[in-house]
């Protein structure tokens, strides 16, 4: 879906930030109440691409491997509902076919850029004794450096896994991961619910429709538009913020 883009983040390792006026022209929706929702939550789950980080990981990897325009075309078709999430993922990865070495080089040469104030917000949540999770349709090998930068245990990351052969060539991806299919974020949250105390309040924060649709089993959804404002998500979300600072209260 088309939207405005903004990023003036504090990079994980210095990724270049993009800056436009999305957050300036998009008014938040009930940010004070959203901050209260966070206070009441025992578990806070974040989407990664365009939420915790400024970029969309698979698009950046595709561009790095010289397949950017081909993958962008498939992404557009997928967003139009022409195929399932898993089919779109399969097609895009079969176009990119990154080697293990290319993935390592990409992580080193194109580190992700953390969204503005997200590191401070995650530290605030942890200081309050809350559990923090990352739930992404992206790939764990690209997300692990982000989790490490934020001090989030890798056990608290739900993401897809690329599979390589013995020569380090791309083979496929793990289709047993819940986030590899439509409705996967809700599935991941259901698993998180089972792992934690009964009655724990879970809030999902993200920029996209798949994040919005994670309620239920999540108790609350807070839309995030600090990088990309998706009109449908903005319209449907009860709570919406454009800077993580808005969720930290006074």
Automatic annotation (TrEMBL):
Listed EC numbers: 3.1.3.3
GO molecular function: L-phosphoserine phosphatase activity; magnesium ion binding
Uppermost EC category: hydrolase
One of the GO BP terms on file: L-serine biosynthetic process
GO cellular component terms listed in the entry, alphabetical order: cytoplasm
Pfam families noted in UniProt: Hydrolase (PF00702)
Keyword Manganese tagged: no
Keywords, in A-Z order: Amino-acid biosynthesis, Hydrolase, Magnesium, Metal-binding, Serine biosynthesis
Required co-factors: Mg(2+)
Active site: 47 (nucleophile), 49 (proton donor)
Pathway(s) per entry: Amino-acid biosynthesis; L-serine biosynthesis; L-serine from 3-phospho-D-glycerate: step 3/3
NCBIfam families per the UniProt record, alphabetical: HAD-SF-IB, serB
PANTHER family per record: PHOSPHOSERINE PHOSPHATASE (PTHR43344:SF2)
Family (UniProt): Belongs to the HAD-like hydrolase superfamily. SerB family.
Identification of the protein by name: Phosphoserine phosphatase
Source species of the chain: Drosophila gunungcola
Lineage of producing organism: Eukaryota, Metazoa, Ecdysozoa, Arthropoda, Hexapoda
